[in-house]
Amino acid sequence: MKIQACIVPAFLTSIAVAQPPVAFILNYGNGGNEKFEDVYAISDGGYILCGITRSDGGVDGTATPGNLIVTRVDADGEIIWNRVVDRENAALLLSVIETDNGSFVFVGQDAYERYALELSRDGDEVWSSRYGRGRFDAVIELKDGRFLCAGRETFNTYQANLTCITPEGELIWSRRYDIEHSSHLTGLRELEGSVVAAGNGNVRALGGGIRPLPLALRVALDDGAVIWQFFSAEGPIMNVRDMTSSGDGGFVLAGDWWGDDVRGAALIKINSAGEEVWQRNLQRLGREILVHGIARALDGGFILAGVFLYRPRNFPAAVIRTNSEGIPRWSSFYNLEEDPRFGIGPTANGLLSVVKNSDHEFVATGLVYTAADSTYDGLLMKLEPDILGPSFIAWSPEDTLLQVLRGTEVTIIAVAHSDYFDNLDYIWS
Description:
- The chain has strands spanning about 1-5, 15-20, 20-30, 35-40, 45-55, 65-75, 80-85, 90-100, 105-110, 115-120, 125-140, 145-155, 160-165, 170-175, 180-190, 195-205, 210-220, 225-230, 240-245, 250-260, 260-270, 275-280, 290-295, 300-310, 315-320, 330-335, 350-355, 360-370, 375-385, 385-390, 400-405, 410-415, 425-429.
- By secondary structure, the chain is mainly β.
- Strands 8-9-10-11-12-13-14 form a seven-stranded antiparallel beta sheet, with no helix packed on it. The chain has a four-stranded antiparallel beta sheet with strand order 3-29-28-27, with no helix packed on it.
- The protein starts with a strand and ends with a strand.
- Residues about 1-20, about 55-65 and about 415-429 have low confidence and may be disordered.
């Protein structure tokens, strides 16, 4: 009898992964309707969350009046402080970072203008400023201490905008990028001497509709001049909501694929030269999954957070885990109406942002309707680390052929590498 050891390439196999349990799901009310748009894992192990609070019940992020809400919590989700920044016009916060000096910078919209705000570690306002019509969707702190904000300018239509400001919020430069009918930037990553911004360029379709197409720009940090542009008016039709680094010098854009009246999760990877590496249409995982956030995992894969549109009334929070090639490992839908704390709301429960903390756990935020009065609260959900199946890194000899007598027992010991343990011994006989 012959026993032959054969190793199948990993990209052709289904890798065993244990879907992680939820560490906690917490909701935060402030007497009105609260929605968290972004979460950041801060250096003390806790989290800073930002968004909007209002009394009109809308969830589209544009209704007025709306006050800005910021909540700082510890590692277990316990509130350290909560701040509401009063505004009389349309206002919301869409992105937050912790600065190198320990304060927090937020961007969004106030009075229909691009807006930035700095709060101290204790939640006191340091400065705030507006920068003209439009809104900011993302912010990063550059290595030299400046802040770069990405979003859009708004006139008769809107176009992508990058704005660079000092650590005190003073304008250094602002640049508009005219892409087709309209455009909008939603994510940022810094490179050496430049930055990559991602979002959408929109073209007019037959019949007057708008087709969202993925867009990425690499621009110089000194003045915003374009180094390269990733965009094609031929498609694919995709609404890009977030981006992350891929770990090998490239970038992964995450959002929704549109087609045949169905929307599904989608990913596009580009390299550091702005060339497409791969596309992934994840529609088969569910009817319609709207991806709002992406974060990179310890093993190089990705977590996608969003909303699973399960009509007619329930909109569960959705999480998808992929490997480094964008191939799904697992997906999960959290039906929050089954929790006695929550109820059925008129629009979406769901996740709007996701981040990885220093312990490689994923934390997502968004909104959830409460059972008491159908108002909605800010939502914070933490997943335990998922346990990945081991991956073979070497075997010797590469093609092993054993010849044994029938009935003879043979024991084969294989040592496999795991991201969570030094090594794992597997025995077959």
